[in-house]
Amino acid sequence: MRPLIGQWGAPPDLAAWVALGVGVALWGWTFRRKTELFAPSPWLLAFAAGALSWVYGRHYLHGTPRVIDATTYWLQARALAAGRFTWEIPDVSASFRGRFLLFNEATGRVGGIFPPGYPLVLALGFVAGAPWLVGPLLAVALAWMTGALTREMFDDHPAREEMRRGAMAVSLACAALRYHTADTMSHGAAALALTCAFTWALRASRAGVGWWRVGLAAGWLFAIRPVSVVAALGACLALARRPRAAGVLLLAMAPGVLFFLVEQRAVTGRWFTSTQTAYYAQSDGPRACFRYGFGHGVGCRFEHGEFLDGYGFGDGYGARAAAGVTLRRLRAHALDIANLEALALLVILGAWRWRARRAVKGACAVVVGHILAYAPFYFDGNIAGGGARLYADVLPLEHALLVAGLWSVKGGDARRAARLVGVMAASFAVHTVFEHRVSGEEVRESPRVEPGRRELVFVTGDHAFNLAHLPGERDAVVARWRGDAHDTALYARLGRPPTFRFVSDGRGAVLVPWRPTLSDELVFEADREWPVRRQRGGYAVPARVEAPCVTGESALRLVAEGASARADVELPLPRAGEFEVVPFVFVEGEGRVSIVEEQGRIPLTTWAWTRERGCIELPRQRVKSRSSRLLVRIETPRAPLAFDRVVVTMR
User: Can you tell me the distance from the alpha carbon of 509 to that of 489, in angstroms, rounded to the nearest whole number?
Assistant: First the structure.
């Protein structure tokens, strides 16, 4: 848990020293000069925001997406650029299944689990050959629309142009927005869509026309982050007032909503089924743990177990837990607004001072409604650098209110706005920067793979896989290194192509040739199969198990939630025929392990035990199969079962 007042210290890097210099210079010049200082062109401010986001991505993110969400968006965008929502994978699916990717059992295809609105925008960057320009371009548009929003909110104020520039400068200096328009996360795009919708709604409410573009922006926001559209749509409909205007708005949302629904159907195989809900139902537990709402069973134990234990979710997710989650988000968000927690008070001041204005009332309703809309989601989502990312979508509205708060003080003017930006720059240098340095501490690398070149490249970890994998590529295959027979099985099924491993040599990561030692004895580690092919009545996740029969102290643990639980994992053999097999398990009660053909229902062989505890020695059994695509089915009535590995000897 970070300290209440955050970390403070001397600037730790060159970028922070530059920011400190800019902050001091702004303060010094505003006191020394009598002429107007702070009147830069809005275009200059907008493009400066884009340039800073580009610099941020190179300096703090080292030119690569950082968090796992960002790399998944990257992979989804690459697939969309190739015209795919989902893509085929070779039939050793464990070499490709992983975190935040949903495997469709019926089609044998995988797809990312995040909404498609932002990947579609990022895909345009892939088509143009410059995906890293998408974030900076979003930053340019976001700074411009923040200024447009401020001018619309205070259209009759004599200082509206100065307030517009001030809001754009605040947006430019906001470190949280630099992160969200540098990393490949969806919140920068969501903030732009929300700001466009609300700004255009203010304009349309005066002009009486233009509601179609409000609807297009709201539909795009729905396709990016469906929950984020709730409060913004409510405010836009309130501004519409007339049924005809509201109807045009809702009709114009249809393309975005339909795009979202079609993508979810393509990935899950079912209409009106969330990809994220389907993913957690396949990879985590308890059942329906990932859901929007309150009650028992909310909170996924594998993905967010540490968070749940740390904040006491033992009685489920209720009002008390929601209040705690919301307060943690607000605590982080106070820093996000203007790089210094105390400056967030200007937002409240602006909202109160200008509360009689309809536009200010609407902006406040969107901000408060947005916070409440995310209260039923149990995970706070806070990340280093990105702060309270679930609230980042409303930062432009808060920047407009912050500038309003500055102008509400007697004598508020452009000179004072320059000093505010100076404080933001200096605060970043000695305070906020430490959050952003954490976001880029670990440099993750991925190999460059040329499409069409016949080779197999093994990488370690979700980040490297998501960044290097080429969706649908049949020749240049990037797969996950499993360190067991999964790797040799994939190598054999792909026709033994030139193969490489992407490994660290102490100075960096390099590709080294790899050729397996083929053997008739194959060892398949069960925890490499997460997320499992399917689970029912419980959940199967990797877990630490200290026992003599468990290699590496990690196994696939099956936990029953009701009368019984079942999970299927893959057993990809090099060929059909006869083989001997023995599973290794650590048990805490009754259970059963079976070998079944992938398309069959009758087990080829079964091991069963009753009232056992600890490591049990299961007999070696001879099996004959007409298929090389088999599954290992593990079942337990109530007590947990840890499945470590299965050893196969081909005959």
Answer: 25
